[in-house]
Amino acid sequence: xxxxxxxxIVHAYDKAESAAFLSExxxxxxxxxxxxxxxxxxHNGVSLDFIDADPGQQIEPQHYAFLVSEPExxxxxxxxxxxxxxxxxxxxxxxxxxxxxxYGGRGVYxxxxxxxxxxxxxxxxxxxxx
Length: 130
Ligand SMILES: [Fe+2]
Description:
There is one protein chain. By secondary structure, the protein is an alpha/beta fold. The chain has two helices and seven strands, in the order βαββββαββ. Strands 1-4-3-2 form a four-stranded mixed sheet, with helices on one face. The two termini are 20 Å apart. Fe (ii) ion binds next to β5.
């Protein structure tokens, strides 16, 4: 099988703000303009292509989850704390100020400037394949 997710479009109220936020929080390369998009590429070749919403358009928040190493989790979570951003252990936002330890790893949720729900995990859902 060679099917791989290559890119997806992320609607934003301010694509520059949202794209910069994601790249800074995750420690990725700065966003690169491509047509009307600002492209943020993660390390498995998938890109999130930010585009400004139409004036007055209400964006339906989406969810983006990133698998990171344990040391990367420390750094990214450190940025969340340093910026004083609200964070949660659960996707429903019912466990503020906590992280989770699902599947023996660590995970945390927080919001981007456009209201999207970001997540970092150190172990994939269901655990590592045995
Ligand atoms: Fe998730």
